[in-house]
Records
---
Amino acid sequence: MGGIVWNEWARLMCLTSSFVIFVGGIMGTFQPLPAFDAMRLLPGLYTQPVPILPLILIVLGMILAAIEYPVVAVDYFNSPRSFMPKVAFFIPLTVMSLLEAQTVNGSIYLGIGTLAYLMAIRDDFRKQHQQAINGGRMA
């Protein structure tokens, strides 16, 4: 697969995960359900009247959707140099969304999308290396 295919596939996976994380955060606000029973004992995450973790996941799901589907199309978001900051943001979000039971599927989708972005980065590095070997000529 070429770099642009990995990029588009990763983008669609991350858009899907942003929707699942957003909706799971809304569901978790009304019925908080931690993914692990030991997390019920942590103060602040699942206390009543408002659980904190689902609210954070709602905001992060909206930020993820804004990153992957920007209102203003800028060339930077489609270039391979923008993939590294995305991956750096997606990895902690993946771990955080694993902590809420309603957003586990979104976390898995985001992990797959992050791996696809890493494959796009790898393909771009290979293409740059091949061009450097050829002296800048297209092979």
---
Amino acid sequence: MRITLDDETFRIPYGREEYEGGVIHPYRSLVEHPEQIDQIPEVVGQPALRELLKVLNGSEGRFESVRIDSTYHAFEGAMVHVAVIGFIFRDRQLFSHFDSCLLFAGNLLEALHAEDAFPEGEDAAQLELQRATFGESRQQGWIMDLFLLGQGTDRKACDAELALRCNALQQLFREKYALR
């Protein structure tokens, strides 16, 4: 797993935006409106990714997803499916402290090393920390973008590997990062 920093500030919430590569769909708070999950195009046909979003945003969770992206592309003779889930701490004190995100990143790295779905030395996941402002008050904090990769000879194989990783993360977030 690789951890990177991005110093560009991301504003939450955000609206729909069209760009040369496609469409950015508007922010949806799945914590406040879990029924809106089916309005997120990236989870259509991706049940494990959908369930991971449900777990992240569930009533027992510590986090809230704030963006998602999903792309397929060719890489070194294979196909890769990259899913990116941006999430923040629900606790706005933790959200505002960089060290909270860095501590979480280190703990996540250790937990993923114990998972068969994330072999050591393989770029199966990456976590990027980026500055963010949240809500009308524009509270300063940090978003954590989790990049998950599924690789294979075709889309079906990529999706199967990505689903294994999403399933492992679902379990990890339920067991280790749930509020008790």
---
Amino acid sequence: MFMHENEKSTNVLRRYVERRERCGDLVPPVKRLVFFIYDFTYAKELAPILGRIAPNCVVFNVGIPKMKTFPLLPTAESRYVADFISLFLLGGNACETLRVLHIFNFISLDPHLEKILKKCRKLRHLTVSNIDDVAVFELEFIESVVLDSCDFSITMFDENFADV
């Protein structure tokens, strides 16, 4: 029986999560999560698994700064990324704990993303690097926005918002 490469990756992650959950309190919680995938077409399958790995995520990086993927058109990628973020937030408690979100893949600042992020009432900082489209977009609880790549590091700025 032939197994697609994506199915193998998903199965490996599922086994990892199951083993991690069996360890219970012996495993420290994941507070900062970095997720990079070349093609977001299949990312939605991984989102619920990552939600189980980091249910109380405080800082979430989607993509890597200055790392261009381009397997998809920007409009398609932006929709897949928004769907991935939505499924990740539903997979755990992250919408209650997320304070810093960096999105380095293409994204549309539109009502669809706005609806997803409005669930994250503790979200204080948003970084976006590749904007496909902009529509009416308002998140009243956001204190800072970076419209550029902020390099791949934990800054004092991130730590301040994560500790609040």
---
Amino acid sequence: MSSKETTLVLLLLVFSVQCDQILDFKVITAVRHGIENALNYIESNLYRSMVDVTLGVAFVKAFMKDSYKNGSHIMDPSSLRIMNRCDNVLAKASQFFSTTEENGSDWKFKNLIYNDIWTKSMDYKPKNSLKTKKNPDKISPQIIFYRENYSDHCIFEIVNATNQKDYRQCPVSRSCWDTFYKNAKGNGYFLTHKLLILQIAKARKCIINAYYYKKQVTEICTFIKYDATYYTGSQDEKFDLFLEQILLCGYEGFTDFIRNDWLFRILKSQRDSGCFKDKLLDKNKSRIKRDAVLFEDGCSDHTTTLGAGVLGLYYNYIIKKEFIGM
């Protein structure tokens, strides 16, 4: 057993972790180390990664900014150090992505990452605020793949309609409306992309009806919760998707995605180098994300940045729920 596995076992024994218990704040040490190791790995591999690798870093930065309490909090030195680390990684990333047109790297990095659109005050909802509901929509894998690829086009519509300085109406094409905004039907990455596009529209200051946003986000995360909770085998088979589900629904404050057993699964799956594989099963690997790079160590840039983002979410939750007592 490695020292990392021994540490996790001891944490489990000392803190008597149960799925329905609140996270013990002492676990934050392991979470913090996980974030820092992931950031180190991301920075070391920026030159051969896709631009999406910076999104998780942007989320980590946002979670740290919300955790930081101007020096009055016991964890502020750690929060500030990680926040500054994110700034350094993003500054280095700008050398690779800000002027590269391939895969839309330049406009994605400038408008979705570097402008710090993700920072907000995290407001966590009560546990079990989401119902357990299976999505009745059955969509073929071919259609889902098409719709995933189409998401960049619809995100670009949002970027073109906004300037990040003031709130604006954001015109939506009929095809994007029918594909991503009209309803919460779907599964897999198609469903998380629906959520992400809504979140981008809000973060970029599109004027959105509050009732529509809440209803759509709640319904999407209700279906995602079912998939993440009951398809336990797919948590290993599609670990990358599992992390994306936690990060995006967790960002909306749904504590149904803040679970001790999930946290320890994530910490245990992180390799000593700080990276994450896109799936955890000991079978021949296959790339499950179109915008991902699979490295020779078996890790994925996309999964690693999601892992960093999820650990940042848990860090923020532990501080605000355990230390501050929200």
